[in-house]
Specification:
It contains one helix and 39 strands. It is mainly β.
Length: 423
């Protein structure tokens, strides 16, 4: 009966915020979240499924106001969190207020599914408290650069931790407890470049730790809590460089030479039908990464700024800005597809009567921005196309600002930005 009466609640179509939609939902409902950056923290409700448009396009940002997603109570009834970037919990010595997802529960069953998300800028990724029975599934998630560990597995809840990628966290990647009395499966995960161990826990018979790739974790791949030593060596697991696209830039896609390709648990498959890969993101031969980099020199102190990654179709994830503009100066943004020539004129091209200033972009059109504030710094989200034909196409941007007295021309130019949509 509960399934028959389930309702889809859309954000922002039906409700302006995620919290408003969750508050209006009842057990069995789905909250479906459109692309964009959505404000947190969010207090979850039992039985409500929270589904985003995908981690590249849909963000829940806690704005440093505490944990991003929180759930309290004795029972965690069929909670699902899927398809988000979960970010910006307030850093704190108290990890309970610095989590991506924090469950403060009692003795009820924990039926919780966390799938296909990305966790960043948090103290920890997932922290459960309490729970007896049920099932915890953590699958297909990325945990990137967290202050402490990525996830903790409760002692008395059966858990399946599969196909996650955890890199550059400040402590151990997965903590599975020393008193686990329920079956725990940790398979097909990439655990690399973390500040502690890859996995710490007890080497109990009810724990399956296999088909993971563990590499360059500061304290070693495993730590056996009951034995208080590093002799724990579950098999089979890989101990090789996973060869990620660019782990220093937090791009965790597998490259074509990664040993993780087709190396997961035998008999399981990726969505394309091939043997399952290790990690959160199956290898994609057609993957095109997003790029953004400045080039050239500005004049008069004017500087191009940018933040985030330009994923195809994302809303509010990529921003551009300007720094060093004269207070109150009118601003124009030059937008073009070339930085080599403009109407037969080679670029960079010196600007007449503006020593040290150069045109770096062949402008196809100009966009007017609000006048520069007193600080001279301005930033705003950049609309990104959802047209697959623009993936990988270089787009060039350059600022021009009015600056009477800076030079005879009365204008100054920034350096330039080249970016391309990733898929």
């Amino acid at each position: 009966a509960g399934t028959a009466s389930a309702t889809d609640l859309h954000v922002p179509g039906d409700h302006p915020t995620i919290q408003a939609a969750v508050d209006a939902a009842v057990s069995g409902d789905e909250v479906l979240v459109a692309p964009g950056v959505h404000a947190g923290p969010v207090q979850l409700e039992a039985g409500v499924r929270l589904i985003g448009s995908g981690w590249k396009t849909c963000v829940i940002d806690a704005q440093e106001k505490g944990s991003v997603l929180k759930l309290s109570g004795d029972a965690v009834e069929e909670i699902v969190v899927r398809g988000f970037t979960i970010r910006n919990a307030k850093p704190s010595a108290n990890l309970l207020v610095a989590g991506g997802i924090v469950v403060l529960g009692g003795s009820g069953a924990m039926n919780l599914t966390i799938r296909d998300n990305r966790f960043e800028d948090c103290g920890i990724g997932f922290l459960p408290s309490g729970g007896v029975g049920g099932l915890l599934e953590v699958r297909g998630n990325q945990f990137v650069g967290l202050t402490s560990y990525a996830l903790s597995v409760p002692d008395k809840v059966p858990a399946e931790i599969r196909n996650n990628t955890i890199v550059h966290c400040g402590s151990t990647a997965i903590s599975s407890g020393s008193n686990s009395t329920s079956p725990v499966t940790i398979e097909n995960n990439v655990l690399a470049y973390n500040g502690g161990y890859g996995i710490q826990g007890n080497a109990a018979a009810n724990k399956k730790v296999r088909y993971n790739t563990l590499h360059a974790n500061t304290k070693g791949p495993f730590f056996e809590l009951l034995g208080a030593g590093t002799s724990w060596n579950p098999t089979p697991n890989l101990h090789q460089d996973p060869k990620l696209q660019d782990h220093l830039a937090s791009d965790l896609h597998l490259t074509s030479t990664s040993p993780c390709i087709d190396a997961g648990k035998p008999g399981e498959q990726d969505p394309d039908g091939s043997p399952i890969d290790i990690g959160a993101l199956p290898y994609d031969a057609g993957y095109v990464p997003p790029t953004a980099a400045t080039h050239g020199q500005g004049c008069g102190g004017l500087t191009m700024t940018h933040d985030g990654e330009p994923w195809l179709g994302s809303v509010g994830r990529f921003s551009i800005g300007v720094a060093g503009a004269p207070a109150g100066a009118p601003l124009l943004l030059l937008v073009g597809l070339s930085n080599t020539s403009w109407s037969g004129v080679p670029l960079p091209a010196p600007i007449p009567n503006a020593p040290g200033c150069s045109l770096l972009v062949a402008p196809l059109f100009l966009l007017a921005a609000p006048p520069a504030p007193a600080t001279g710094t301005l930033a705003f989200p950049t609309p990104l196309s959802d047209d697959p034909s623009v993936v990988g196409l270089p787009i060039h941007l350059q600022w021009v600002a009015s600056a009477p007295g800076a030079n005879p021309a009365g204008i100054v130019f920034s350096d330039a930005l080249e970016f391309a949509h990733g898929d």
